[in-house]
């Protein structure tokens, strides 16, 4: 009889099981919501990091372009400043050809509205 009285005080098994099932379902939904929030935060920070990386790569590329441009101008200036006296005929012709090409590029860049630094000081 004691067993019957103790079971009589408890809720029916169906109600308790339903309550547990709802609690598990609510916990699962809460975990899914938390996971979604974490994933959104992670993807957002990943996107920001990717954007910063792309920006740094573009800036690095621009710096490399400027450096190459500066090196080219220095080389062109060196060719333009080269004295042709005492050179062999072949060397002189090569330098004269280079100087003519450089001068043409400088004229085009100053007339075309491009970079007008063109080695002119």
Mean pLDDT: 85
Measured distance between first and last alpha carbons: 112 Å
Strand elements, count: 0
SSE topology string: HHH
Radius of gyration based on Cα positions = 39 Å
> Helical proportion?
over 70%
Task: Categorize the overall geometry.
Answer: rod-shaped
Number of H/I helices: 3
How many domains would you count in the coordinates? 2
Structural class: mainly alpha
Summarize the main sheet. none
Low-confidence stretches: 116-121
Strand percent estimate? under 5%
How would you sum up this structure, described in words?
By secondary structure, this protein is mainly α. The protein folds into two domains: 11-66; 82-121, no CATH class. 83% of the residues lie in helices and 0% in strands. It is built from three helices and no strands. The protein has helices at 2-9, 13-81, 89-111. The longest helix has 69 residues, at 13-81. It is rod-shaped. The N and C termini lie far apart (112 Å).
Summarize the structure.
This protein has helices at 2-9, 13-81, 89-111.
Keywords, separated by commas or semicolons:
83% helix; 121 residues; mainly alpha; No apical meristem-associated C-terminal domain-containing protein; single chain; 3 helices; NAM-associated_C; 2 domains
